[in-house]
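It would be a great kindness if you could assist me with a short task in structural biology. I am sending you one protein, given as its amino acid sequence and as whole-number tokens for its backbone shapes. I would ask you to consider whether the tokens describe a fold that such a sequence might reasonably adopt. The full record is reproduced below for your convenience.
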Amino acid sequence: MSEEEASKVLAELLWTEKYRPKTLDEVVNQEEVVIRLKQFIKEKNTPHLLFAGPPGTGKTTVAHAFAHDLYGSDYRLYLLELNASDERGIDVIRTKVKEFARTKTPGNVPFKLILLDESDNMTADAQQALRRLMEMYVAATRFILIANYPSKIIEPIQSRCAVFRFVPLSREDVVGRLSWICGKEGVKCNQDALNTIYDLSEGDMRKAINILQTAAALGEVSVSNVYKVVGLAHPKEIKEMIKTALSGDFIKARNILRSLMITYGLSGIDIIKQIHREITSSDIDLPEEVKVELADYVGEIQFRLVEGADEEIQLDALLAKLAVIGKKVVGVAPRRVGK
């Protein structure tokens, strides 16, 4: 067996029944959502729906699957799909949506569906107009609203909808699926790289697949290649900079910072986010109260950067703060700030 064939077999083994949906109509990690929607399909009746949750968890796909199960293969005849981030004004609600909503549908299902994707981007006036349409044409039309941030949907609309909350995908589901993709595509990968992709995607399957495809273009999906394609510094380099500053060597830490900004082309916001992640990790050996103080100061620096302060000056100030705190905590013995 060749190395490529062995890689495919290994990937197939990783994608076990543990990761695979039990039946073709299941949705990974969204079991409660599926159970409730199946009941609506069985009754051929549904309230207005609001799908809320982080991106890349299957909200739009579930909406299309719901419509397909209601109407059959020609479901698009009974579904009006609009992306509210593009068509989000009151004129669209008064024209396209209203005209589609007011006509009845022949067939077994007595209503049509209007799918408003990214509805949290709708203007306030459009949302006010929409809530009235949802009442007037409820006999002939049901609305499915999809939002990453449901708090941006006005309360009157939320109260008219049955809310379905989608959760981020679990590590085993994402890593298992990525392993299966690598096997099918003949891509070399390792477990550490796939776990890193999951950490960066934060349960967003769409983002995870995009990172995998981009990293695969470099040849092998490795941890270093993953960080290259996402435009972030490797965590060990950020840790080295933090530990150097905490040991009291401010000049060396600043040189590492400048090297990172030049090598990776990172912005101050990117670096401050990575610093925050590493400071709160277990790899930095500091007392809890010191980590709390540093987290507070990192938040202040991030606010200054967002407000337009000079990136290099603010990050230098953060490293200086780390050096001062490091000396207070460990004195002349820097071993406690890193291993």
Observations:
- The mean pLDDT is 82.
- Residues 19 and 173 are 6 Å apart (CA to CA).
- Strands lie at 48-52, 79-83, 112-117, 141-147, 161-165.
